[in-house]
Amino acid sequence: MSKFGELINAQVPVLIDFYTDWNEPSQSMHPVIKDVAAALGDKAKVIKIDVDKNQELAEALRIKGLPTLMIYKGGEMKWRQSGELDANTLITLVQDQL
Fold it and tell me: Which overall architecture, per CATH, does domain 2-95 show?
Protein backbone atom coordinates (compact mmCIF):
# COMPACT_ATOMS: atom_id res chain seq x y z
CA MET A 1 0.00 0.00 0.00
CA SER A 2 2.85 2.45 0.73
CA LYS A 3 4.12 1.89 -2.81
CA PHE A 4 0.67 2.91 -4.10
CA GLY A 5 0.96 6.13 -2.08
CA GLU A 6 4.27 6.87 -3.80
CA LEU A 7 2.73 6.21 -7.23
CA ILE A 8 -0.23 8.54 -6.80
CA ASN A 9 1.78 11.39 -5.26
CA ALA A 10 3.38 12.20 -8.61
CA GLN A 11 3.10 15.78 -9.81
CA VAL A 12 2.05 14.51 -13.23
CA PRO A 13 -1.34 12.84 -13.73
CA VAL A 14 -1.35 9.10 -13.03
CA LEU A 15 -3.84 6.95 -14.96
CA ILE A 16 -4.40 3.60 -13.26
CA ASP A 17 -6.11 0.64 -14.90
CA PHE A 18 -7.33 -1.95 -12.39
CA TYR A 19 -7.83 -5.22 -14.26
CA THR A 20 -7.72 -9.02 -14.11
CA ASP A 21 -6.49 -11.47 -16.72
CA TRP A 22 -9.78 -13.42 -16.74
CA ASN A 23 -12.10 -10.41 -17.23
CA GLU A 24 -12.99 -9.84 -20.90
CA PRO A 25 -13.58 -6.05 -20.73
CA SER A 26 -10.24 -5.76 -18.88
CA GLN A 27 -8.55 -7.66 -21.71
CA SER A 28 -10.06 -5.45 -24.40
CA MET A 29 -8.70 -2.36 -22.60
CA HIS A 30 -5.05 -3.56 -22.83
CA PRO A 31 -4.40 -2.14 -26.35
CA VAL A 32 -6.32 1.04 -25.46
CA ILE A 33 -4.15 1.61 -22.38
CA LYS A 34 -1.01 1.01 -24.50
CA ASP A 35 -2.18 3.64 -27.01
CA VAL A 36 -2.92 6.13 -24.22
CA ALA A 37 0.52 5.59 -22.69
CA ALA A 38 2.19 6.07 -26.08
CA ALA A 39 0.20 9.24 -26.80
CA LEU A 40 0.90 10.84 -23.43
CA GLY A 41 4.59 9.96 -23.27
CA ASP A 42 6.27 11.46 -20.20
CA LYS A 43 3.47 13.98 -19.56
CA ALA A 44 1.68 11.37 -17.43
CA LYS A 45 2.16 7.96 -15.88
CA VAL A 46 0.05 5.01 -16.98
CA ILE A 47 -0.06 2.07 -14.60
CA LYS A 48 -1.85 -1.28 -14.73
CA ILE A 49 -2.69 -3.03 -11.45
CA ASP A 50 -3.90 -6.65 -11.37
CA VAL A 51 -6.60 -6.80 -8.68
CA ASP A 52 -6.03 -10.55 -8.20
CA LYS A 53 -2.45 -9.82 -7.12
CA ASN A 54 -3.39 -6.69 -5.14
CA GLN A 55 -6.60 -7.70 -3.37
CA GLU A 56 -5.96 -5.59 -0.27
CA LEU A 57 -5.55 -2.45 -2.38
CA ALA A 58 -8.61 -3.30 -4.49
CA GLU A 59 -10.70 -3.71 -1.34
CA ALA A 60 -9.39 -0.48 0.18
CA LEU A 61 -10.36 1.39 -3.02
CA ARG A 62 -13.70 -0.46 -3.26
CA ILE A 63 -13.01 -1.76 -6.76
CA LYS A 64 -16.16 -3.62 -7.82
CA GLY A 65 -16.45 -3.46 -11.61
CA LEU A 66 -13.62 -4.19 -14.03
CA PRO A 67 -11.87 -2.52 -15.55
CA THR A 68 -11.84 0.41 -13.11
CA LEU A 69 -9.90 3.44 -14.29
CA MET A 70 -8.67 6.24 -12.03
CA ILE A 71 -6.70 9.42 -12.47
CA TYR A 72 -4.67 10.76 -9.55
CA LYS A 73 -2.56 13.90 -9.31
CA GLY A 74 -0.58 15.02 -6.29
CA GLY A 75 -2.04 12.19 -4.21
CA GLU A 76 -5.65 13.20 -4.91
CA MET A 77 -8.15 11.21 -6.97
CA LYS A 78 -9.36 13.46 -9.78
CA TRP A 79 -11.52 11.01 -11.75
CA ARG A 80 -12.81 7.44 -11.54
CA GLN A 81 -14.95 5.22 -13.74
CA SER A 82 -15.65 1.53 -14.18
CA GLY A 83 -16.02 0.08 -17.66
CA GLU A 84 -14.40 0.40 -21.04
CA LEU A 85 -13.46 3.72 -22.63
CA ASP A 86 -11.79 4.61 -25.91
CA ALA A 87 -8.24 5.95 -26.09
CA ASN A 88 -9.21 9.48 -27.18
CA THR A 89 -11.55 9.94 -24.22
CA LEU A 90 -8.89 8.73 -21.78
CA ILE A 91 -6.21 10.94 -23.33
CA THR A 92 -8.50 13.98 -23.04
CA LEU A 93 -9.34 13.15 -19.40
CA VAL A 94 -5.64 12.89 -18.49
CA GLN A 95 -4.70 16.03 -20.46
CA ASP A 96 -7.37 17.96 -18.51
CA GLN A 97 -5.22 17.30 -15.42
CA LEU A 98 -1.95 18.59 -16.91
Answer: 3-Layer(aba) Sandwich (3.40)
